[in-house]
Target: LysM peptidoglycan-binding domain-containing protein
Amino acid sequence: MEIHLIDSAGKDFYFPVNPEEVKISRGKGYETVNIMALGEFDFISGEKVKEITFSSFFPLEYDAGYCQYKQIPNPKDAMNQLTATMNSQTPVRLLIVGPTGNVINALVMIATHDSIFRGGEPGDIYYDLTARTWRKPRIHVRAGADSSTKKGGTTATSRPDTKNTAKTYTVKSGDSLSKIAKLELGDCSKWSKIYNLNKTTIGPNSNLIKPGQKLVLPS
Model:
């Protein structure tokens, strides 16, 4: 399993040690109304924001027995980066990739993360992290309200943009099309689909991708 936090600039924070478990909390929202002489009634108000929680640690030194990769971050730097992400007003993409593909691929805000220092393990920092799925706010306009005015005093309602915005990926040092396909699409064999969409950018050799190139991903 791999766990990544990817910001809007494409910077990838790769958690070095997998947690024992990942918990996803779901729920339905209710609004309770007290109607005189009839009592209380519950009205469904929609799905609650999902919470994703997991716990692990940042080791001071690499250990092949549990580390996902060799160039692990310094524990203090890792915690500072999580704090900066939590304090940011911009959502990040939480990507959890399992043996059969993506388990979670969602925009989230880091709600909380706790640091834990244990005696006998100097340098290692344990943590508990909670992320909440992010949804873009939708503003509903009251029926009959003027959204825009044409000449002559008549009103016109703007049409919503129904076009789907293509998802892109910015190439980083060490990337390959198969690695990008694994992280973004959950299947490394889909590298050819990425290449076919970006032949003009990449060129005739699919193995020669360069850091900074912006690739369009299949929908």
The radius of gyration is 23 Å. The CA atoms of residues 101 and 207 lie 23 Å apart.
